[in-house]
């Protein structure tokens, strides 16, 4: 089985997108499938047109001269499709696997039509809702509606569709004209080979951060508005009043850095809030080891109701306790009172009360940690998750074989 993945960007860049991609491709390779990837013009600078990183073969697409809205995106799609087609003619995949955003699906669909190849389109989040969550778009705007229309069109045209959670699937089916039977769930997962057994408590790091002997909560991830970190900082005075030894550790960065730091500096408990900044991915486990409870206070909006995050799974894999806002994406991952704690979203007082009660019930921590880890091992490990693609790929490969894709196409150099 040969699968050519169509990506917005990839390694060596670091993002949640690239880490999920790496996990999928490495798990597929472990099953004996042959995989390669083509990255879009949005990947940015690269050293060579073709390179192998972490054992994965990447083909690069040069940047495209920017243009006004719509024209610039169409240029990207045309250049991306040209590169995908050249690689496909050389490498001869059985299946094209495009990953969101929708520009990649549009480019891949052109190639699928030209070469008679089957296409699966995988959606990790709706581009239009992600723009709203990131503060770069407005719900209901012309751009929002146009992007939603393109997404729906891409789903209808693809031979199969994968989404990361039930929320996205339900939304697509509700749009009408989309067969629920062609949509599979490929949930977020953890590569336990890369992100496996947790480290022991790093006493030196705790001392360095000024949290030695403290009760600690924390967040490790990207600082976007929809993550609700302003609410977490707002909850800290009440939380310190309830738990006098409480400290908050924030690891990561993003568009909200400056605003969050200013808010924390003005807090009456500013000395209890520690900003670490971004850390190398290979160092992240050290920070998990010094945080008692990872808190995910996502705000209530379409994006957070429809999309499941990855970070709570990583925390559970590290045998850390998790507390999160009661939004749809979290409810697909966390069973309240069993594998984690859910609290009312957009309510700092509710956050403080729930987290304080969790610290007051330490007798149940060990068993909850083990249940969280077991959930990841049995339901969210990539070694298991990747098997969900098997039947879909087999069905699509048969379509390609019946259409005899390569009998009428010449091989050209990429």
TrEMBL record:
SUPFAM superfamilies: UDP-Glycosyltransferase/glycogen phosphorylase (SSF53756). CDD domains: GT4_WbuB-like (cd03794). Residues 16-189 form the Glycosyltransferase subfamily 4-like N-terminal domain. Pfam families: Glyco_trans_1_4, Glyco_trans_4_4. Keywords: Transferase. InterPro entries: Glyco_trans_4-like_N (IPR028098), Glycosyltransferase_grp1 (IPR050194), PEP-CTERM/XrtA_GlycosylTrfase (IPR024004). NCBIfam families: stp3. This is PEP-CTERM/exosortase A-associated glycosyltransferase. GO terms for molecular function: hexosyltransferase activity. Gene3D superfamilies: Glycogen Phosphorylase B.
């Amino acid at each position: 089985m040969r699968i050519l993945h169509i990506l917005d960007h990839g390694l060596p860049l670091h993002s949640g997108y690239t880490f999920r991609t790496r996990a999928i491709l490495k798990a597929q390779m472990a099953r004996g499938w042959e995989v390669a990837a083509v990255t879009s013009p949005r990947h940015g600078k690269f050293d060579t047109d073709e390179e192998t990183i972490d054992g994965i073969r990447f083909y690069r697409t040069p940047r495209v001269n920017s243009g006004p809205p719509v024209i610039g995106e169409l240029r990207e799609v045309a250049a991306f499709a040209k590169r995908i087609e050249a690689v496909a003619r050389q490498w001869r995949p059985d299946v094209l696997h495009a990953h969101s955003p929708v520009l990649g699906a549009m480019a891949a669909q052109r190639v699928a039509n030209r070469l008679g190849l089957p296409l699966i389109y995988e959606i990790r989040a709706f581009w239009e809702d992600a723009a709203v969550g990131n503060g770069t778009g407005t719900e209901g705007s012309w751009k929002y509606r146009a992007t939603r229309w393109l997404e729906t069109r891409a789903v209808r045209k693809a031979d199969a569709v994968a989404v990361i959670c039930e929320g996205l699937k339900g939304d697509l089916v509700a749009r009408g004209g989309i067969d629920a039977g062609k949509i599979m769930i490929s949930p977020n997962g953890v590569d336990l080979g890369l992100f496996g057994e947790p480290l022991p408590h790093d006493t030196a790091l705790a001392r360095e951060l000024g949290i030695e002997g403290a009760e600690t909560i924390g967040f490790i991830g990207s600082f976007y508005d929809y993550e609700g970190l302003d609410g977490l900082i707002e909850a800290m005075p009440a939380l310190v009043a309830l738990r006098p030894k409480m400290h908050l550790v924030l690891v990561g960065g993003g568009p909200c850095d400056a605003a969050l730091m200013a808010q924390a500096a003005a807090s009456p408990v500013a000395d209890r809030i520690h900003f670490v900044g971004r850390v190398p991915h290979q160092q992240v486990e050290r920070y998990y080891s010094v945080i008692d409870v990872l808190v995910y206070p996502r705000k209530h909006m379409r994006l957070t109701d429809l999309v499941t995050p990855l970070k709570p799974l990583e925390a559970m894999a590290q045998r850390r306790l998790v507390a999160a806002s009661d939004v749809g994406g979290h409810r697909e991952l966390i069973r309240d009172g069993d594998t984690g704690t859910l609290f009312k979203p957009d309510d700092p007082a509710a956050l403080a009360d729930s987290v304080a009660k969790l610290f007051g019930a330490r007798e149940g921590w060990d068993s909850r940690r083990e249940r969280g880890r077991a959930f990841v091992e049995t339901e969210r490990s990539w070694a298991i998750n990747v098997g969900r693609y098997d039947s879909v790929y087999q069905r699509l490969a048969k379509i390609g074989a019946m259409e005899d894709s390569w009998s009428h196409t010449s091989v050209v150099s990429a």
